[in-house]
Amino acid sequence: xxxxxxxxxxxxxxxxxxxxxxxxxxxxxxxxxxxxxxxxxxxxxxxxxxxxxxxxxxxxxxxxxxxxxxxxxxxxxxxxxxxxxxxxxxxxxxxxxxxxxxxxxxxxxxxxxxxxxxxxxxxxxxxxxxxxxxxxxxxxxxxxxxxxxxxxxxxxxxxxxxxxxxxxxxxxxxxxxxxxxxxxxxxxxxxxxxxxxxxxxxxxxxxxxxxxxxxxxxxxxxxxxxxxxxxxxxxxxxxxxxxxxxxxxxxxxxxxxxxxxxxxxxxxxxxxxxxxxxxxxxxxxxxxxxxxxxxxxxxxxxxxxxxxxxxxxxxxxxxxxxxxxxxxxxxxxxxxxxxxxxxxxxxxxxxxxxxxxxxx
Length: 360
What we know:
By secondary structure, this protein is α+β, with helices and mostly antiparallel strands. It is 51% helix and 11% strand. It has two domains: 13-123, 2-Layer Sandwich (Herpes Virus-1); 129-359, no CATH class. The chain has helices at residues 13-22, 62-74, 113-123, 129-145, 150-155, 189-207, 236-252, 255-271, 276-306, 313-328, 330-342, 348-359, and strands at 42-43, 48-49, 52-53, 59-60, 158-166, 169-175, 181-185, 219-227. The strands form three sheets. A four-stranded antiparallel beta sheet has the order 6-5-8-7. It starts with 12 loop residues before the first helix and ends with a helix.
């Protein structure tokens, strides 16, 4: 037992809670250090303490927790407490949860807090809202690149950004990139149909099937060209590699073929939100594509280092005539493609009904 003058340094919540509950004056003597960076999490002058309590009971400062989680996600490392190795993963997406538990420096502490936190972990299922929205937005960006020529985007030093916002909950908003917007882009009716196919599946996963007559698409979408990341940015190789992958697809397929693949990707994206297993399998396939895109980046980077002028012009000249003809007939192809790919489905509404029966 500490004396009334000793500083309170316990950064393990069960121990700290008992000390404070047994000695209410202990709250005035907090000198708690983060277990990762060793910086003070408590401020004696204003009686505050900025600390996150993990479900295992260990406490760390918010910046370290955020950096620790981001490292685990970026490197596909299981999320465990850095002190006791308690498994913090509670969701299919690998995130620990939607909300953190902050330490409240009051004179009475809840000694049953950890039991409740661990019970919540056992009850959480599926991917968190942020990860689902991010998966949707990134999937829609790939779908869009089937319809927007990536060559001018590459040549202009730009990126394609997709923004998704829940129509009745404005705080649920995700942007694939956050660099400066250069130009807003229109969303064609054909592209909106593809967006709706994927997004309605996510809405159904959250709230169940919509009643007849309810608003069909619960999300707002925005498309924009934005400035490319600087070359030292961690996401720069992926963005370049993705554009190069779709540049090859534009060379490989005509408008009809590209829209057919876009529809196929929209169906796969919609299917990702139908179960935990489907979401996990979809994310594994996305990671495989990201590895492929990195190889596209490596090839592109090697070419531009040898001859910077060779990057765009030759490939563009070889396909100018073909792309001109495609663009003239693009809307006719686009209007027909959904019917062609749907097989027995003669319009988008019947396709949605088919989708609802088979993936919900």
